[in-house]
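Worked example 3. Consider a protein that binds 2-phosphoglycolic acid.
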Amino acid sequence: MRKPIVAGNWKMNKNIAEAIDLVEAIKCDLAQTREVEVVVCPPFTALKACSDAISDTEIRLGAQNMHWEKNGAYTGEISAEMLRELFCHYVIVGHSERREYFKETDEIVNRKAKAALAANLRPIVCVGETLEQRESGQTEEVVTSQVKGSLADIGAESMKSLIIAYEPVWAIGTGKTATPEQAQEVHALIRKVLAKMLNQDVADGVRIQYGGSMKPSNAAELLSKPDIDGGLIGGAALEASSFVDIVRAAKEVVEA
Ligand code: PGA
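Given these inputs, the predicted complex is written out as structure tokens:
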């Protein structure tokens, strides 16, 4: 069985003091949660403080981006090894905001995912169609090519450490959530693509998160779908209470 994974993507929010407050509040409820994997992804500047705060808990740390090289003349960039040094376990790669504002292509996302895996960091690889693509019936084609491109040449063994996040761009930060049926359809498609790329066994083991306006009121329904294995949470992860409630919903689905 796939253990659900709920990750908070804080994006460019929270200074160090605010980050500590948020992580301490999350800790109160989730420090020893094991049925669901809980991950927080603060901005780079708050990683160290959050890492220290959660060191004695089951909560895992993730970063929001990284560079694919180990070191070198890449002003402003941060490598996988540097993230490992702060005890990061996860790193989000290819978020739609990075694809849109920073022109990250599938090829770049693929390089980052491979570099993360090589450094023992688990990539959360994001894919998802825009509203225009959905409305013109291109969802399947777009998501398939993103999965194939972003995960090219990643072997079966590495794939076990990798997480995929399906995030329809039109649902991110808009309050518009994909219906559980719409999300399930794409999650099943992603699993089918993985089975073709590798094999059914590997595809069945990979966890696929849903992201895009997930909140306490819609989490249970989304998470109870067979191919939805957790959530990548933006807005609702900035408040401890809503993030904790989403994790609780995931826990209830596991226990049901
Ligand atoms: P949202 O963001 O929950 O605010 O829609 C999700 C994400 O961008 O990962």
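Take a moment to read the result before moving on. The mean pLDDT is 97. The chain has twelve helices and eight strands.
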